[in-house]
Automatic annotation (TrEMBL):
Stored InterPro entries: Ca_channel_alpha-2/delta, VDCC_a2/dsu, VWA_N, VWF_A, vWFA_dom_sf
Localization per Swiss-Prot or TrEMBL: Membrane
Gene3D superfamilies: PAS domain (3.30.450.20), von Willebrand factor, type A domain (3.40.50.410)
Protein name: Calcium voltage-gated channel auxiliary subunit alpha2delta 3
Family: Belongs to the calcium channel subunit alpha-2/delta family.
GO terms assigned for molecular function: metal ion binding; voltage-gated calcium channel activity
Domain VWFA: 247-429
GO cellular component: voltage-gated calcium channel complex
Amino acid sequence: MKCVLHCIFFLLLWITPNTRVCASHQGIPLSVVKLWASAFGGEIKSIAAKYSGSQLLQKKYKEFEQSVRVEEIDGIKLVKKLAGKMEQMFHKKAEAIKRLVEAAEEAHLNHEEDPELQYEYFNAVLINEMDEEGRSLELGGEFILQPNEHFNNLSVNLSLSVVQVPTNMYNKDSAIVNGVYWSEALNKVFVDNFKRDPSLIWQYFGSAKGFFRQYPGIKWTPDEHGVLEFDCRNRKWYIQAATSPKDVVILVDVSGSMKGLRLTIARQTVSSILDTLGDDDFFNIIAYNEELHYVEPCLNGTLVQADVTNKDHFRDRLDKLFAKGIGMLDMALTEAFELLSNFNETGRGSVCSQAIMLVTDGAVETYDAVFAQYNWPDRKVRVFPYLIGRESAFADNLKWMACANKGYFTQISTLADVQENVMEYLHVLSRPKVIDREHDMVWTEAYVDNTLEDAQGPVLMTTVAMPVFSTKNETRNKGILLGVVGTDVPVSEILKAIPKYKLGIHGYAFAITNNGYILTHPDLQPLYEEGKKRRKSSYSSVDLSEVEWEDKEDELRNAMVNRQTGSFSMKVKKTVDKGKRVLVLHNDYYYTDIKGTPFSLGVALSRGHGKYFFRGNLSVEEGLHDLEHPDVLLANEWTYCNTEEHPEHIFLSQIDAIKLYFNGEPHLKCDKDLIQEVLFDAVVTAPLEAYWTSLALNKSENSDKGVEVAYLGTRTGLSRINLFVMPDQLTNQDFLTGEDKEVVFSADHFPLWYKRAAEQVPGTFIYSLPFNTGSENKSVVLASSSIHLLDERESPIAAEKTEKKGYGIPFHPKAVGIQMKLEFFQRKFWTASRQCAALDGKCSISCDNDEISCYLIDNNGFIIVAEDLSLTGVFFGEAEGAVMSKLVSMGSFKRVNLYDYQAICRVYAQTSDTAHTLLHPYFALFAAVRWLLTEFVIFLVEFNLYSWWHSDLTIKAQRGGKTMLVPCDKEYPAFVSERTIKETVGNIDCESCVKSFVIQQIPSSNLFMVVIDNTCDCSDFGPVTMDPIEIMY
């Protein structure tokens, strides 16, 4: 009891000082802050409206109201129409492939194999290479290469193809030379295909012998060791075209006789087998000696999809295998057969094509009893033994197994033999297709082509491929695969079939494969920035559920994988501005399959203005006249007219193509609806040119050159731009240069400022400071406002923007806006904050006083104006953690949790030293505590304690270790202001005082003025950050 009284006494002593401070606290007068906010808001809106011409534009659209028809978009009808257009586009690629198959099979049929054939061909590595005496190398010679814009200015030869031969193969091997000779017939078809369809890029033939013929011809460069690792037979397009989907169980002998080099070769053999498996295949790996050891114990008794993540995981587990004991192959075979049978009954996997890969150094018997029980007489499971090592004592038993079970025997003596010998099983699995003449066309998932790298980094592709068979009578029944032909289709070409204007400001289209992997989606992030743009290891197997993560039940994904047609709705959180801001939308999804491909197409339309589009009715002559104004630009990546179908149209601009279309050009296909709308926008926005010109000529209106640029964009991708200063006087030179695709019209999204303006209350402006724009006098504040066609309709038809402190040179046809200097914007704020209503002119408070701090923040909590210039663009919670925490708890700001399932984490590679420390009991206990308190971490993040939690206590384990980047999942916060709360007065109980603050919304904007009492120190609260944390499963 005595102890309790002591505790109460000390508690009263602790509370009493706080009570005295609170009673004497004067507070910050709300009326003064409201006066400042009103004065600043009125002036800055006046400037933004004046220089943007928003009122003039609103008036012009009002005049044309009667000639405009607003239509609601039928989502199902739209997605079916888009799928039809894509089907036509894919069909053209497929026809090109069929012509190559026919030419290849005919050329081989007419060719007689000649073991002594000598033939000089253009080797992709040796062309244009000279020896020490200046003579062309054998299989080289002069090969004319010229830069070509269609191939991203790579130097190519449009008349000839080149041949690449893997480094581990002999260039003049008889089989290679004969194959190269008869496949020369493909050159004519390559050239003809390109003439028929100028949008084609790489066309090629991958031979079963290993060589690769590519058109157009291009020079290949080996690595610094003179090695080219490329083998076309290892590529997914080759494997998918050559074989059917399959279920595979790999048995690895880890008995004592497999020690040393044999086990190393066995690991490499299994890894190479994994390379030949694709996303349509399922597999598992079982190691055996006197017991069975599933390489991944958690996946005991099942098969898993052979995607990149699973294959990499199993490769890592292979390193943990070690050899000991006696090999009980009968037990392993029994397990493999039962596993395949049970998996087959589930209806998953390939259902029909199954195989057992046996990696061993021998078999003491044939185990015919096992095969008789499980595989005979139907022999549905093929057996492929790989004999490891030079000894052949048990080779006969393994050969018998292969022959008795429709498989193939291979002996692998060295590591150099692995790749070539593993490939042999593909020929066997392809025989049924060859014999049945099944020219199945396959399409791959999206992958990165580094050869066509552009300004945005490597290009995403999909490949269409088809097998080539021998049609000679003497080989027809043997089922000989000659190779695979293919052509690449850039994902950007798929996007051209999508009319972005019909999808709306936030709408988008996306496509997935039959496995649920993304082919194209605006949220797909295949690259990461680490000095230069590089592809992520798992970029090609990003599932739809990882980007549309709000769909917890996978309803959308499953319906699309099952190739259904239908619709689905859900609320979504879409991040913008490099993931720092979030828009909460309600999306309606519509989906259907794309016939003739394994792909399904989806369209997302945001409710409200995203479900409508307008049709204006104006004369063509009037529209063309205004479209040709010098300040007019059209979205660079949008297709108003298809200028790629015919060579004579390739170099036409979209405006020139539109003019040619109306002049009656019969071979030019254009989007009539889009052209009609863009002509309407050209006419309605034309008066802005004269308006902006008059402002620019009146020097007194902008004497301090605070406003630098005005620009405008419409839903049809039309842009107008005007400079109020000379180009070399622009504060920032990077805006609208295409460096940041988020701020320009692109194939799959509207500019960032347009998106944000569309969600702002009509008649108001949204202001923001672009991230990563540099230091003082090198930044801009953007002020955007949406223009509504009809006052009662929620359909922003155009949006224009004022920018204070800048973006760069607006020369490139990519975006629209207005720009002001940040210094100009800040000066207006500080001037307004010095006003007061006192009759004697003596203000009770001022932002100049040391007792208070004044901030201007936006609706996502980012600082635009602060006394400390280094805080410009910083999240408010990092500067004033206590106040931000209070604003969140009071409901003025809402914390929104977001997820990134395509993240990259930097981890420390373990060393011998770090392994020892991690085994210490202290660290084991700490790991257990972390697991128990996972949910508590989320709370800690708000106060930036996670860095202490994660780093400080584990720094001993990390010290001295090398770092590496690995795929991971992350959770991170974003903050959004509550629109209904215009002003708030708050007090924060700190350790020995009470800190007061006032937050007041700036009228007609997304900005807030925050005034904080500096006399109370609340630093113990710590900052509130937006740092992501890794999700630990």
